[in-house]
Amino acid sequence: TEVDFAEIAAAGLNWIRLPVPYWAVETWPGEPFLAKTAWNYVLLALQWARKYGLRVYLELHTAPGSQNGYNHSGREGPINFLNGPMGVANADRTFGYIRVLAEFISQNQYEDVVQMFGVINEPLLGIIGRDQLTRFYLQSHDMLREITGIGKGAYMVIHDGFQGTGSWADFLPGSQRIILDTHPYVAFGGGLDAPLDSWPPAACRGFQTNASQTTFGITITGEFSAAINDCGEWIKGVNVNASFSNCTPWNDWPNWTQDMKDGVKQFVMAEMDAMHVPGWFFWTWKVRKSTIPSVKRC
């Protein structure tokens, strides 16, 4: 709501990351999405961002066919974006949505608010393939600069495909206004079931992006969290249990011990320190009953 945008600005934060599903632009017959609704909220978000002095990283969060097989891609299961029998057709359809969004944010009333544009969220490179994904990024870059002109318009953001920032060294040399996005988490795959004082060093070792600033260029952390495990309601999906061994004390956040509070705080401070150049986006501002993925509740 507008109150959230006001509170984000009041907290001293200066950007928001705005995930936009492809069905905000268009739905096809038979797709299980609410048609002609999400776009209204995109417009409201941009209006509120301008009102409260926030800049926007707008990102296409889903692709037809699913770019990673996760629930947040719009469909859990097989990956049929740049992969499978409909992979090319779904990618072509996605290019259409990228063009629509790029032309929209390049209008005078939005170009000073939306200053970063992510062409697709978290494509799973290990399944899609490097050649396929890099061609997609190159075509997206050329399309975007055809619309904005060279040296102008929103920065284009690409995700590292969960391969790490080092694998993108020297990618697209000579490209215009491009940013690499990485999403480092410790919450998944078992979490940090380790002493509290070991958490900050883990963040410092694993989350730094300094090397990528030299080998690639501008590198941001588009998602990170205070979460050191996958406890919390629906973190991994509706009715999907956490893989962490003991969620009971972590879900009971009103009764956290001071050591638990201090441990999470020091972990987050270490993450922010490791990622402060050139910046980060915390995932997320607030989320239902879960605690540590929520800036507001933390």
Automatic annotation (TrEMBL):
<protein>
    <recommendedName>
        <fullName>glucan 1,3-beta-glucosidase</fullName>
        <ecNumber>3.2.1.58</ecNumber>
    </recommendedName>
</protein>
<keyword id="KW-0378">Hydrolase</keyword>
<comment type="similarity">
    <text>Belongs to the glycosyl hydrolase 5 (cellulase A) family.</text>
</comment>
<keyword id="KW-0812">Transmembrane</keyword>
<keyword id="KW-1133">Transmembrane helix</keyword>
<feature type="domain" description="Glycoside hydrolase family 5">
    <location>
        <begin position="5"/>
        <end position="188"/>
    </location>
</feature>
<keyword id="KW-0735">Signal-anchor</keyword>
<dbReference type="GO" id="GO:0009251">
    <property type="term" value="P:glucan catabolic process"/>
</dbReference>
<keyword id="KW-1003">Cell membrane</keyword>
<dbReference type="GO" id="GO:0071555">
    <property type="term" value="P:cell wall organization"/>
</dbReference>
<dbReference type="GO" id="GO:0004338">
    <property type="term" value="F:glucan exo-1,3-beta-glucosidase activity"/>
</dbReference>
<dbReference type="GO" id="GO:0005576">
    <property type="term" value="C:extracellular region"/>
</dbReference>
<keyword id="KW-0961">Cell wall biogenesis/degradation</keyword>
<keyword id="KW-0472">Membrane</keyword>
<dbReference type="Pfam" id="PF00150">
    <property type="entry name" value="Cellulase"/>
</dbReference>
<keyword id="KW-0325">Glycoprotein</keyword>
<dbReference type="GO" id="GO:0009986">
    <property type="term" value="C:cell surface"/>
</dbReference>
<keyword id="KW-0326">Glycosidase</keyword>
<comment type="function">
    <text>Glucosidase involved in the degradation of cellulosic biomass. Active on lichenan.</text>
</comment>
<dbReference type="GO" id="GO:0005886">
    <property type="term" value="C:plasma membrane"/>
</dbReference>
<dbReference type="InterPro" id="IPR017853">
    <property type="entry name" value="GH"/>
</dbReference>
<dbReference type="InterPro" id="IPR001547">
    <property type="entry name" value="Glyco_hydro_5"/>
</dbReference>
<dbReference type="InterPro" id="IPR050386">
    <property type="entry name" value="Glycosyl_hydrolase_5"/>
</dbReference>
